[in-house]
């Protein structure tokens, strides 16, 4: 999980004294990378839960099956674009532009730093509207998991599906299970349907919400470290 160290805090104080006018360049990169890094642990918890359900449903809980390795292509598909998605959702989709008053054309009190009550592209604005900033980062991660990790289409999922079916067949063959025809547990079609259902269930986002502490995701805000880091 992302942690703001002493050096980072000192750098933040220096940046504040220099009165940064807008969040550009290194500011955008740093804030985006911080949120992506922060979400590494919650996302890992989601994928770990998915791996456990995968193991229990398709591999009979077999300890020798490394379900996490099978899930790796799905995580890779999510991680590849995580930075760009998060950056775009924060900057410039919501926080952008100068924080000048639309009527008078002057900067309101507290702008650009440290607490700017106008939605714009400055650190002070990000701090004032931190609740919105945290929500953007959460939603960006949730949608990333839905559309890239837990999408049931595309080459990553096809590779994942093929690997699961192959491993499931090996496990059931090894245990020499006799399944009634009415159950059709070992049929390729049945495995595909169950696997798609499990994947779509995780795409709904309940697992990420749980990993973040439930409603309002209190474990995925990191305000005490992020605010001084932003400034």
- State Rg: 23 Å
Helix content: 55-70%
Class based on secondary structure composition and strand pairing = mainly alpha
Largest beta-sheet characterization: none
In terms of DSSP E residues, the strand content is under 5%
Residue-averaged pLDDT, rounded?
84
Structure, described:
This protein is mainly α. Helices cover 62% and strands 0% of the residues. The chain is built from eleven helices and no strands. Helix 3 packs antiparallel against helix 9. The two termini are 20 Å apart.
Summarize, please.
This protein is mainly α and 231 residues long. 62% of the residues lie in helices and 0% in strands.
Features:
231 residues; mainly alpha; 0% strand; elongated
Set out the fold topology:
Layout: H1 6-17, H2 26-38, H3 40-58, H4 67-80, H5 82-90, H6 123-128, H7 130-149, H8 155-175, H9 188-203, H10 206-211, H11 223-230
